[in-house]
Amino acid sequence: MKGISDEIKSVIKQAAEEEWPGNFVMQLHVVEEQLEAFVSIDALKENNTDNAVFQTVMKKAVEDWPDDYVMQLDTIKEQLAAAVKLANFSDLTGDKCFEFTEVEQEAWTNEDMQMLFYRMGTRD
User: 3-state DSSP call for residue 90?
Assistant: First the structure.
């Protein structure tokens, strides 16, 4: 995993200062939370470079929350959980209604993604 660039750190720090002027406890909390989310997103990116579903979800999360890594991570988790549920969705006859491509399914077997889904309570 790569280190966090000085530019990213600066953007996070500036946002915390603007959101909580003079409140150093909250600034520290925001910075720590944002950096932790950034590292989590970076790890997910590294493990899902060929996953079209992940790439689509990631692009949308960045567009919706450009410099808010906590919200990006929450969006990614929610969207991936929905994608897994959708992939496993069955109609009343028990037949699966949707199928993902082989490349997309590879991510579902990736240990990191499985742990993410497990922690989110979406794995049976």
Answer: strand
Instruction: Give per-residue pLDDT as tens, 27-71.
Output: 999 999 999 999 999 999 988 888 888 999 999 999 999 999 999
Domain span at 83 = 6-119
Q: Domain for residue 98, yes or no?
A: yes
CA atoms of 40 and 38, how far apart (whole Å) = 5
In a domain, 124, yes or no: no
Q: Which two tokens stand for residue 77?
A: 């988790």
pTM equals: 0.70
Q: Where are the beta strands (DSSP E) in 28-96?
A: none
What is the Cα–Cα distance from 103 to 80, expressed in whole angstroms?
15
